[in-house]
Amino acid sequence: MSETEQQQSVDGVERAAIFMMSLGEKEAAAILRHMEPKEVQRVGAAMAALTHVTHEQIDNVLDEFVQAVQTETALGLDSEEYVRNTLVEAFGVEKAVSLVDRILTRPNSKGIESLKWLDPRAIAEIFRFEHPQIVSIVLSYLENDQAAEVLKHFSEERQADILMRIATLDGVQPSALQELDEILERQYAGSFSLTSPASGGKETAANILNYLDADTEQKITEAIQKYDAMLAEDIQGLMFVFSNLLDIDDRGIQTLLREVASDTLLVALKGADAEVKEKIFKNMSQRAADMLRDDLEAKGPVRLSEVEEAQKEILAVAKRLADDGEIALGGSGGDEFV
Fold it and tell me: Which one, 46, 150, 209, 304, has least CB within 10 Å?
Protein backbone atom coordinates (compact mmCIF):
# COMPACT_ATOMS: atom_id res chain seq x y z
CA MET A 1 0.00 0.00 0.00
CA SER A 2 1.39 3.39 -0.98
CA GLU A 3 1.82 6.18 1.58
CA THR A 4 -1.16 8.04 0.07
CA GLU A 5 -3.39 4.97 0.22
CA GLN A 6 -2.26 4.25 3.77
CA GLN A 7 -3.10 7.80 4.83
CA GLN A 8 -6.54 7.64 3.20
CA SER A 9 -7.30 4.35 4.96
CA VAL A 10 -7.20 6.14 8.32
CA ASP A 11 -10.43 8.09 8.84
CA GLY A 12 -10.90 11.37 10.68
CA VAL A 13 -11.67 9.84 14.10
CA GLU A 14 -8.65 7.54 13.91
CA ARG A 15 -6.42 10.44 12.91
CA ALA A 16 -7.72 12.40 15.88
CA ALA A 17 -7.03 9.44 18.18
CA ILE A 18 -3.48 9.07 16.88
CA PHE A 19 -2.92 12.81 17.28
CA MET A 20 -4.25 12.80 20.85
CA MET A 21 -2.15 9.77 21.83
CA SER A 22 0.97 11.52 20.56
CA LEU A 23 0.32 14.48 22.89
CA GLY A 24 1.03 14.54 26.59
CA GLU A 25 -1.82 13.67 28.96
CA LYS A 26 -2.23 17.29 30.07
CA GLU A 27 -2.44 18.62 26.52
CA ALA A 28 -4.83 15.87 25.42
CA ALA A 29 -7.07 16.55 28.43
CA ALA A 30 -7.18 20.26 27.54
CA ILE A 31 -8.50 19.38 24.08
CA LEU A 32 -11.05 16.88 25.39
CA ARG A 33 -12.56 19.55 27.64
CA HIS A 34 -13.66 21.42 24.53
CA MET A 35 -15.35 18.42 22.91
CA GLU A 36 -19.01 17.53 23.10
CA PRO A 37 -20.00 14.24 24.77
CA LYS A 38 -20.33 12.03 21.71
CA GLU A 39 -17.03 13.38 20.39
CA VAL A 40 -15.29 12.43 23.64
CA GLN A 41 -16.83 8.97 23.47
CA ARG A 42 -15.88 8.39 19.82
CA VAL A 43 -12.32 9.68 20.10
CA GLY A 44 -11.83 7.97 23.47
CA ALA A 45 -13.01 4.65 22.05
CA ALA A 46 -10.73 5.08 19.03
CA MET A 47 -7.78 5.85 21.33
CA ALA A 48 -8.47 2.74 23.42
CA ALA A 49 -8.71 0.59 20.29
CA LEU A 50 -5.45 1.76 18.72
CA THR A 51 -3.09 -1.13 18.02
CA HIS A 52 -0.08 -1.54 15.78
CA VAL A 53 0.13 2.13 14.84
CA THR A 54 3.10 2.56 12.51
CA HIS A 55 5.61 5.38 12.64
CA GLU A 56 4.44 6.32 9.15
CA GLN A 57 0.85 6.79 10.32
CA ILE A 58 1.93 8.94 13.25
CA ASP A 59 4.17 11.02 11.01
CA ASN A 60 1.37 11.49 8.47
CA VAL A 61 -1.10 12.71 11.11
CA LEU A 62 1.40 15.08 12.70
CA ASP A 63 2.52 16.34 9.29
CA GLU A 64 -1.08 17.19 8.41
CA PHE A 65 -1.41 19.25 11.57
CA VAL A 66 1.97 20.97 11.18
CA GLN A 67 1.28 21.80 7.55
CA ALA A 68 -2.08 23.29 8.47
CA VAL A 69 -0.46 25.50 11.11
CA GLN A 70 2.42 26.53 8.86
CA THR A 71 0.20 27.56 5.97
CA GLU A 72 -1.81 29.95 8.12
CA THR A 73 -1.03 32.69 10.59
CA ALA A 74 -3.37 34.15 13.16
CA LEU A 75 -2.05 37.65 12.42
CA GLY A 76 -4.49 39.66 10.33
CA LEU A 77 -6.86 36.70 9.90
CA ASP A 78 -10.27 35.84 11.20
CA SER A 79 -9.35 33.67 14.18
CA GLU A 80 -12.53 31.61 13.89
CA GLU A 81 -11.77 30.78 10.27
CA TYR A 82 -8.21 29.89 11.24
CA VAL A 83 -9.37 27.50 13.96
CA ARG A 84 -11.92 25.95 11.64
CA ASN A 85 -9.46 25.37 8.78
CA THR A 86 -6.74 24.05 11.05
CA LEU A 87 -8.97 21.50 12.76
CA VAL A 88 -10.47 20.32 9.47
CA GLU A 89 -6.97 19.74 8.12
CA ALA A 90 -5.88 17.99 11.30
CA PHE A 91 -8.89 15.80 12.03
CA GLY A 92 -10.94 15.60 8.83
CA VAL A 93 -14.26 17.24 8.13
CA GLU A 94 -16.46 14.77 10.03
CA LYS A 95 -14.54 15.16 13.30
CA ALA A 96 -13.86 18.87 12.97
CA VAL A 97 -17.38 20.17 12.23
CA SER A 98 -18.89 19.47 15.63
CA LEU A 99 -15.65 20.22 17.48
CA VAL A 100 -15.32 23.64 15.85
CA ASP A 101 -18.88 24.55 16.79
CA ARG A 102 -18.20 23.51 20.38
CA ILE A 103 -14.99 25.52 20.69
CA LEU A 104 -16.36 28.68 19.09
CA THR A 105 -19.89 28.80 20.49
CA ARG A 106 -20.00 26.51 23.51
CA PRO A 107 -22.14 27.92 26.31
CA ASN A 108 -21.95 26.77 29.91
CA SER A 109 -23.56 23.36 30.04
CA LYS A 110 -26.84 23.74 31.86
CA GLY A 111 -30.45 22.85 31.35
CA ILE A 112 -30.95 20.86 28.20
CA GLU A 113 -27.29 21.30 27.21
CA SER A 114 -26.33 19.20 30.22
CA LEU A 115 -28.36 16.29 28.83
CA LYS A 116 -25.82 15.92 26.03
CA TRP A 117 -23.33 14.65 28.58
CA LEU A 118 -25.62 11.95 29.90
CA ASP A 119 -25.93 8.35 28.84
CA PRO A 120 -29.09 7.84 26.70
CA ARG A 121 -30.46 5.38 29.26
CA ALA A 122 -30.06 8.01 31.99
CA ILE A 123 -31.96 10.59 29.92
CA ALA A 124 -34.76 8.09 29.33
CA GLU A 125 -34.96 7.44 33.08
CA ILE A 126 -35.26 11.16 33.84
CA PHE A 127 -38.26 11.53 31.53
CA ARG A 128 -39.72 8.02 31.79
CA PHE A 129 -42.85 9.16 33.63
CA GLU A 130 -43.20 12.56 31.97
CA HIS A 131 -45.81 13.39 29.35
CA PRO A 132 -44.82 12.23 25.81
CA GLN A 133 -45.08 15.83 24.61
CA ILE A 134 -42.31 16.82 27.02
CA VAL A 135 -40.17 13.92 25.81
CA SER A 136 -40.77 14.89 22.18
CA ILE A 137 -39.55 18.43 22.89
CA VAL A 138 -36.40 17.13 24.59
CA LEU A 139 -35.57 14.73 21.76
CA SER A 140 -36.10 17.49 19.22
CA TYR A 141 -33.33 19.50 20.88
CA LEU A 142 -30.87 16.60 21.01
CA GLU A 143 -28.83 15.52 18.03
CA ASN A 144 -30.59 12.88 15.95
CA ASP A 145 -28.31 9.98 16.83
CA GLN A 146 -28.51 10.70 20.57
CA ALA A 147 -32.30 11.13 20.32
CA ALA A 148 -32.55 7.73 18.63
CA GLU A 149 -30.52 6.09 21.40
CA VAL A 150 -32.77 7.66 24.06
CA LEU A 151 -35.90 6.56 22.19
CA LYS A 152 -34.73 2.93 22.27
CA HIS A 153 -35.16 2.89 26.04
CA PHE A 154 -38.89 3.59 25.93
CA SER A 155 -41.59 0.99 25.33
CA GLU A 156 -42.68 0.31 21.75
CA GLU A 157 -46.00 2.03 22.33
CA ARG A 158 -44.35 5.18 23.72
CA GLN A 159 -41.75 5.18 20.95
CA ALA A 160 -44.43 5.59 18.28
CA ASP A 161 -46.33 8.17 20.32
CA ILE A 162 -43.20 10.26 20.93
CA LEU A 163 -42.09 10.11 17.31
CA MET A 164 -45.54 11.13 16.09
CA ARG A 165 -45.43 14.13 18.40
CA ILE A 166 -41.99 15.06 17.10
CA ALA A 167 -43.27 14.83 13.52
CA THR A 168 -46.20 17.13 14.28
CA LEU A 169 -44.30 19.50 16.58
CA ASP A 170 -44.97 23.05 15.46
CA GLY A 171 -43.72 25.45 18.09
CA VAL A 172 -43.61 24.83 21.81
CA GLN A 173 -46.33 25.94 24.21
CA PRO A 174 -45.13 28.11 27.14
CA SER A 175 -46.75 25.66 29.58
CA ALA A 176 -44.65 22.81 28.15
CA LEU A 177 -41.48 24.89 28.48
CA GLN A 178 -42.38 25.70 32.08
CA GLU A 179 -42.87 22.02 32.86
CA LEU A 180 -39.59 21.13 31.18
CA ASP A 181 -37.87 23.89 33.13
CA GLU A 182 -39.17 22.44 36.40
CA ILE A 183 -38.02 18.92 35.50
CA LEU A 184 -34.52 20.05 34.65
CA GLU A 185 -34.33 22.28 37.71
CA ARG A 186 -35.16 19.31 39.91
CA GLN A 187 -32.39 17.32 38.26
CA TYR A 188 -29.69 19.96 38.03
CA ALA A 189 -30.75 22.88 40.22
CA GLY A 190 -30.17 25.13 37.26
CA SER A 191 -32.52 27.18 35.12
CA PHE A 192 -33.47 26.03 31.66
CA SER A 193 -32.89 28.30 28.70
CA LEU A 194 -33.38 27.74 24.99
CA THR A 195 -30.73 29.03 22.62
CA SER A 196 -32.65 27.91 19.53
CA PRO A 197 -36.19 26.76 18.72
CA ALA A 198 -36.97 23.04 18.77
CA SER A 199 -36.48 21.63 15.32
CA GLY A 200 -39.26 19.05 15.36
CA GLY A 201 -41.34 18.24 12.30
CA LYS A 202 -41.48 15.30 9.92
CA GLU A 203 -37.88 15.66 8.81
CA THR A 204 -36.59 15.46 12.39
CA ALA A 205 -38.73 12.36 12.97
CA ALA A 206 -37.33 10.79 9.78
CA ASN A 207 -33.77 11.63 10.79
CA ILE A 208 -34.22 9.99 14.18
CA LEU A 209 -35.68 6.89 12.54
CA ASN A 210 -32.61 6.74 10.31
CA TYR A 211 -30.47 6.05 13.38
CA LEU A 212 -32.64 3.22 14.71
CA ASP A 213 -32.11 -0.44 13.86
CA ALA A 214 -34.32 -1.83 11.11
CA ASP A 215 -36.57 -3.83 13.47
CA THR A 216 -37.32 -0.88 15.77
CA GLU A 217 -37.77 1.42 12.80
CA GLN A 218 -40.30 -0.94 11.22
CA LYS A 219 -42.31 -1.37 14.44
CA ILE A 220 -42.54 2.39 14.99
CA THR A 221 -43.48 3.04 11.38
CA GLU A 222 -46.21 0.39 11.48
CA ALA A 223 -47.59 1.81 14.72
CA ILE A 224 -47.70 5.33 13.29
CA GLN A 225 -49.38 4.00 10.14
CA LYS A 226 -52.25 2.60 12.22
CA TYR A 227 -52.93 6.07 13.64
CA ASP A 228 -52.11 8.21 10.62
CA ALA A 229 -51.23 6.49 7.35
CA MET A 230 -50.48 9.76 5.56
CA LEU A 231 -48.10 10.93 8.28
CA ALA A 232 -46.28 7.58 8.18
CA GLU A 233 -45.96 7.85 4.40
CA ASP A 234 -44.59 11.39 4.65
CA ILE A 235 -42.00 10.36 7.24
CA GLN A 236 -40.90 7.37 5.18
CA GLY A 237 -40.57 9.59 2.14
CA LEU A 238 -38.13 11.80 4.05
CA MET A 239 -36.00 8.94 5.33
CA PHE A 240 -32.59 8.40 3.79
CA VAL A 241 -31.74 4.72 3.28
CA PHE A 242 -28.71 3.00 1.81
CA SER A 243 -30.27 2.51 -1.61
CA ASN A 244 -30.65 6.30 -1.82
CA LEU A 245 -26.92 6.45 -2.52
CA LEU A 246 -27.94 5.71 -6.10
CA ASP A 247 -29.44 9.22 -6.22
CA ILE A 248 -26.11 10.90 -5.44
CA ASP A 249 -24.07 11.93 -8.47
CA ASP A 250 -20.63 10.47 -9.12
CA ARG A 251 -18.73 13.43 -7.76
CA GLY A 252 -20.79 13.25 -4.58
CA ILE A 253 -20.05 9.53 -4.18
CA GLN A 254 -16.34 10.22 -4.60
CA THR A 255 -16.53 12.92 -1.91
CA LEU A 256 -18.39 10.51 0.37
CA LEU A 257 -15.87 7.70 -0.12
CA ARG A 258 -13.04 9.97 0.98
CA GLU A 259 -14.79 10.35 4.35
CA VAL A 260 -15.61 6.68 4.96
CA ALA A 261 -13.25 4.16 6.53
CA SER A 262 -12.50 1.17 4.29
CA ASP A 263 -13.57 -1.35 6.97
CA THR A 264 -16.93 0.39 7.40
CA LEU A 265 -17.51 0.41 3.64
CA LEU A 266 -16.66 -3.29 3.38
CA VAL A 267 -19.19 -4.31 6.03
CA ALA A 268 -21.89 -1.97 4.65
CA LEU A 269 -21.58 -3.41 1.15
CA LYS A 270 -22.03 -6.98 2.41
CA GLY A 271 -25.75 -6.23 2.65
CA ALA A 272 -26.06 -3.84 -0.30
CA ASP A 273 -27.87 -4.40 -3.58
CA ALA A 274 -25.74 -5.14 -6.65
CA GLU A 275 -26.68 -1.77 -8.14
CA VAL A 276 -25.40 0.12 -5.11
CA LYS A 277 -22.17 -1.89 -5.13
CA GLU A 278 -21.56 -1.06 -8.78
CA LYS A 279 -22.23 2.63 -8.05
CA ILE A 280 -19.45 2.48 -5.45
CA PHE A 281 -17.06 0.45 -7.60
CA LYS A 282 -17.28 2.79 -10.59
CA ASN A 283 -16.35 5.77 -8.44
CA MET A 284 -13.13 4.15 -7.20
CA SER A 285 -9.86 3.57 -9.00
CA GLN A 286 -9.76 0.25 -10.87
CA ARG A 287 -7.19 -1.11 -8.43
CA ALA A 288 -9.18 -0.05 -5.36
CA ALA A 289 -12.41 -1.45 -6.81
CA ASP A 290 -10.76 -4.80 -7.60
CA MET A 291 -9.34 -4.99 -4.07
CA LEU A 292 -12.75 -4.22 -2.57
CA ARG A 293 -14.42 -6.90 -4.72
CA ASP A 294 -11.82 -9.43 -3.57
CA ASP A 295 -12.31 -8.42 0.07
CA LEU A 296 -16.10 -8.81 -0.26
CA GLU A 297 -15.72 -12.30 -1.69
CA ALA A 298 -13.20 -13.32 0.95
CA LYS A 299 -15.10 -11.90 3.94
CA GLY A 300 -17.23 -14.41 5.76
CA PRO A 301 -20.82 -13.94 6.97
CA VAL A 302 -21.52 -10.70 8.82
CA ARG A 303 -24.33 -10.13 11.32
CA LEU A 304 -27.20 -8.13 9.89
CA SER A 305 -26.98 -5.73 12.85
CA GLU A 306 -23.33 -4.99 11.95
CA VAL A 307 -24.25 -4.34 8.32
CA GLU A 308 -27.06 -2.00 9.34
CA GLU A 309 -24.77 -0.13 11.74
CA ALA A 310 -22.12 0.33 9.04
CA GLN A 311 -24.71 1.51 6.53
CA LYS A 312 -26.20 4.00 8.99
CA GLU A 313 -22.72 5.32 9.74
CA ILE A 314 -22.16 5.98 6.03
CA LEU A 315 -25.60 7.57 5.67
CA ALA A 316 -24.81 9.86 8.61
CA VAL A 317 -21.66 11.03 6.82
CA ALA A 318 -23.65 11.58 3.62
CA LYS A 319 -26.26 13.66 5.43
CA ARG A 320 -23.56 15.73 7.11
CA LEU A 321 -21.86 16.38 3.76
CA ALA A 322 -25.24 17.34 2.30
CA ASP A 323 -25.91 19.72 5.19
CA ASP A 324 -22.52 21.32 4.50
CA GLY A 325 -23.44 21.73 0.82
CA GLU A 326 -20.62 19.45 -0.33
CA ILE A 327 -22.90 16.89 -1.99
CA ALA A 328 -26.51 16.81 -3.18
CA LEU A 329 -28.67 13.91 -2.08
CA GLY A 330 -31.00 14.50 -5.02
CA GLY A 331 -28.57 13.16 -7.61
CA SER A 332 -27.08 14.79 -10.66
CA GLY A 333 -30.41 16.01 -11.95
CA GLY A 334 -31.71 17.26 -8.60
CA ASP A 335 -31.89 20.94 -7.80
CA GLU A 336 -32.54 20.53 -4.11
CA PHE A 337 -29.69 20.58 -1.60
CA VAL A 338 -30.33 19.44 1.95
Answer: 304
